[in-house]
Amino acid sequence: MHRFFCVALFVIAASFPVSSRADDKPDPTGTWKWSVTFNNETREQTLKLKVDGEKLSGTLVGRNNQETAIDDGKFKDGEVSFSVTRERNGQKRTTKYKGKVEGDTIKGKAESERNGQTNSRDWEAKREKK
């Protein structure tokens, strides 16, 4: 009887780390914020994401609180990727984002093309707490 109790206790104790690891699975769903500086002007960015399997959807809130839908959104192995196309002064500009979700942070690179040159910059967003 004592041996059965010890085995049962071991099985129960061994299951705890497994269940807590499952809760740590990366999830990009939520509202994310970060700052971007262009020409000595800092702007706050807000990204709203929702994941369904490997499909990522959402919007990026920009200047004048204008929401722009993300395109080509994907989420796989803890990594997000999507693009955002904006139009300003009659010109379209697409920025491609890639990043890794780690807890309440997404860190990655954003790439855009301007005048035939590709520009790359780091971005780091923090999840907004409810």
List strands and helices in order, with pairings.
Layout: H1 2-23, E1 30-38, E2 41-52, E3 55-61, E4 67-69, E5 71-76, E6 79-88, E7 91-102, E8 105-114, E9 117-127
Antiparallel strand pairs: 1-2, 1-9, 2-3, 3-4, 5-6, 6-7, 7-8, 8-9
Could you explain the architecture of this structure?
By secondary structure, the chain is α+β, with helices and mostly antiparallel strands. It has one domain: Avidin-like (Lipocalin, Beta Barrel), CATH 2.40.128. It has one helix at residues 2-23, and strands at 30-38, 41-52, 55-61, 67-69, 71-76, 79-88, 91-102, 105-114, 117-127. Strands 4-3-2-1-9-8-7-6-5 form a nine-stranded antiparallel beta sheet, with no helix packed on it. The chain is globular, with a radius of gyration of 21 Å.
